[in-house]
Amino acid sequence: MSNIKILGTGMGIPKRKIDNDFFEKTVNKDDEWIYKKTGIKSRYIIENNEEYINIITESINEALRNSKINKNNIDLVILATSTPTNLFGGVSRIINNLEINNCISFDITLACNGFNISLYTAYQYLKDSNYKNALIIGADCLSRWVDWSDYKTSILFGDGVGSIIIGKTTNIDFGLIDYFHKQDSSKHNILSIEVKEQEYFINNIKVMNNIYDFMFMNGRDVSKFVIETIPKFIIDSLNKINLQISDIKYIIPHQANKRILDKIAKELNIDHNIILSNIEKYGNTSSASIPILLHEIIQENKLAEGDLILFLGFGAGMSSSIILFKYY
Q: Which residue among 12, 47, 56, 290 is least enclosed by CB atoms within 10 Å?
């Protein structure tokens, strides 16, 4: 039998910083209003596709340095993203640039819940095969897909990348303890980037091309879904494996909105410091938010061997997921 351990992490953030004051002239919302509603003070956005690839590379290289393994010992690479640089998949360009050879690779798209499902998928590959090491990348640049005249989305999202390298271990008392997933597909349309059809006539025959619309989000319905379902989802999941919320050292959640995270803490009757947050600095970075936060707390030496942490994902679908992980 085998499990996984975290070998190294890294992150990448664009150079251009957007503070809340920026939005006074675009959507008539000031710093005080935005911070009160979201907990966000700033976010970073990419300036071009080349910078996007560069910060992904920066994140991976930092994870490689921290893991102290050779890049060619990576057997599997998964890119969790809803904003690839190529609709047929963004990961191939990344591993080609890094000259990571002899691995299999693919993208997974599940928006803000993408990192958790990617980590669990990598775990399954390592657990049930001869693969020894995997690289999971959470990367999104949703600043490219928001309508900058729509305050419901433009103030929330930032761009970023988080990377994690995991390795197989025979120490089954540590690593990934369990995984839980829920989905309510009836709410698929409250957070989406829809395809729009464009009509053309060629030789008197109608043909269609697709383009993507701006992001749409019904913030009230998203918030209601999370607050009404996530606390119960956490408790029910822990009960299934005979654990209590008091057993958890930290909840490392997707960084959607600080008010939402505070309400989850209140419903769970736990200290707000247990649900970690860095949304004030980076905004909502979608699939990158969990690995960026994980990287920061590892760098700050906040985790010790045996700490039980809960990765909490939720977002488009609407879907939610939990990974319970014993750190070492």
A: 47
Q: Do 154 and 28 touch, CB atoms closer than 8 A?
A: no
Q: What stretch of H or E contains 153?
A: helix 151-154
- Threshold 0.90, pTM exceeds: yes
284 is catalytic: yes
Q: Specify burial of residue 2 (Cβ count, 10 A radius: 0-12, 13-18, 19+).
A: middle
The answer to whether 141 is a known catalytic residue is no
Which of these is catalytic: 3, 116, 141, 254?
Answer: 254
Closest CA to 162 of 141, 135, 139, 140: 139
Q: What is the per-residue pLDDT across 67-125, written as a single tens digit (0 to 9) for each?
A: 999 999 999 999 999 999 889 989 999 999 999 988 999 999 999 999 999 999 999 99
CA distance 110 to 44: 22
Task: Name 314's bridge partners.
Answer: 320
Superfamily classification of domain 176-187+216-326: Thiolase/Chalcone synthase (3.40.47.10)
Active-site position among 103, 113, 284, 295 = 284
Q: Which of the following is catalytic: 112, 116, 141, 257?
A: 112
Q: pLDDT tens across 13-48, in order?
A: 999 999 999 999 999 999 999 999 999 999 999 998
**Per-domain residue ranges for the chain?**
3-172, 176-187+216-326
Tell me phi and psi for residue 273, to 5 degrees: -70, -15
> Do 3-172 and 176-187+216-326 come out as alike in CATH topology?
yes
Any idea how long the chain is?
328
Residue 262: CB partners within 8 Å, gap ≥ 6? Answer: 272, 275
CATH of the domain spanning 3-172:
3.40.47.10
Catalytic annotation present for 112 = yes
